[in-house]
Task: inverse folding
């Protein structure tokens, strides 16, 4: 169960000269990695394994937070984490553990936060307890866990009642310990939600400033890009751009990635904005746009929240047979293992193919536009994997539903399961 995780690219399409003459606004030095396609699976420890191919698993809301594992000092209940990581291994998914939240016994303020236990949002009263926890986790799962995230939604007081400086201190200590035990593991910053602007502005820039003073002890910055309940991917694009502007302002080194460690749509709020259920083609379009926007805008990973039965918390339900699951699998097959070049416009375009096998995905963030089918293309497919013949040179109206254009041979490849 604790065998090292293995990830391999499904297939690598090396770009030759680009037949479609698309300007390379976001040309990739590396192909799309399996880790781009992340999921939350709350019942992963119970043996629930998604039917779709996914590259990475975020362990949060899975009964395996710090306070649930170390329920008294030095006494660890490893069963849940062992089972979750073991099942992730069987799915060939690279796991990421969220290291927070503070156990009740370790909390400096037992009234700070209630989830997943009393005092969970508190700064540990003794930082030695944090160091011991990080050491125990990193030692046990060395080689079996690909990443450790410091904390969940630390800009919200129900998850973190301390200061940005204190969170940066926890980050530095965790980074030092993890890298000394498992240098290949990535350390991911505490996440911040973006849509609650006041809370984001109060925490995120100060946290980055504190991390800078600590020498940037992270491999990636993390945000949660849930749009407002009545908004969609266009709002998420603005959140990503805001985050990237703040990263540039803070001087985040260029080699530190941006990860989106929770995303969904239609969730109630902020304020009095109601939630909404999003299904059918709209759900498929939103999921597909999410992952396509990642490579267009420079987001290294997204973890979809979540693979589960409907429980009223999220607007797009993803589980076996849902349009969202179909779109997740479809766009994963379009993208994974491919080099790409993207351009933003009234119709956004990302090219994955070459002269011999042209492949382009086109979609509109807002409204619609016209796209001319390039030479060599014979098939178009939408994110629900509904395909039809198309003629080169014809004009196609592109809206929010991403459309893939390519050869019959490449379409046949995409209909086969990915191999990681």
Result:
């Amino acid at each position: 169960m604790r065998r090292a995780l293995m990830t391999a690219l499904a297939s690598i399409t090396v770009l030759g000269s680009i037949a479609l003459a698309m300007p390379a606004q976001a040309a990739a030095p590396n192909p799309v990695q399996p880790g781009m396609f992340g999921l939350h699976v709350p019942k992963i420890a119970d043996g629930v394994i998604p039917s779709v191919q996914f590259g990475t698993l975020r362990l949060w809301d899975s009964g395996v937070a710090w306070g649930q594992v170390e329920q008294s000092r030095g006494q660890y209940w490893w069963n849940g984490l062992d089972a979750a990581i073991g099942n992730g291994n069987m799915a060939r998914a690279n796991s990421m553990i969220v290291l927070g939240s503070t156990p009740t016994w370790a909390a400096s303020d037992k009234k700070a936060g209630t989830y997943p236990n009393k005092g969970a949002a508190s700064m540990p009263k003794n930082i030695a307890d944090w160091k011991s926890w990080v050491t125990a986790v990193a030692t046990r799962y060395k080689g079996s866990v690909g990443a450790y995230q410091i904390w969940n939604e630390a800009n919200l007081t129900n998850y973190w009642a301390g200061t940005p400086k204190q969170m940066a201190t926890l980050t530095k200590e965790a980074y030092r310990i993890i890298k000394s035990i498992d240098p290949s593991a990535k350390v991911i910053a505490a996440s911040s939600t973006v849509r609650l602007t006041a809370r984001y502005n109060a925490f995120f820039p100060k946290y980055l400033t504190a991390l800078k003073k600590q020498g940037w002890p992270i491999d990636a910055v993390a945000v949660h890009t849930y749009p407002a309940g009545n908004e969609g991917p266009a709002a998420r694009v603005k959140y990503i751009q805001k985050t990237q502007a703040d990263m540039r302002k803070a001087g985040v080194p260029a080699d530190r990635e941006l990860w989106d460690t929770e995303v969904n749509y239609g969730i109630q709020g902020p304020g009095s904005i109601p939630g909404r259920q999003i299904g059918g083609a709209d759900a498929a379009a939103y999921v597909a746009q999410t992952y396509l926007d990642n490579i267009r805008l420079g987001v290294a990973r997204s973890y979809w929240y979540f693979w589960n039965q409907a429980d009223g918390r999220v607007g797009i339900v993803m589980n076996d047979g849902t349009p969202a699951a179909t779109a997740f699998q479809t766009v994963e097959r379009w993208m994974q293992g491919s080099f790409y070049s993207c351009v933003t416009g009234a119709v956004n375009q990302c090219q994955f193919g070459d002269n011999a096998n042209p492949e382009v995905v086109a979609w509109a963030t807002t409204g619609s536009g016209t796209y001319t089918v390039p030479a060599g293309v014979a098939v178009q497919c939408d994110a629900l994997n509904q395909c039809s013949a198309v003629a080169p040179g014809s004009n196609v109206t592109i809206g929010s539903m991403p459309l893939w254009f390519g050869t019959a041979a490449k379409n046949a490849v995409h209909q086969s399961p990915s191999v990681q």
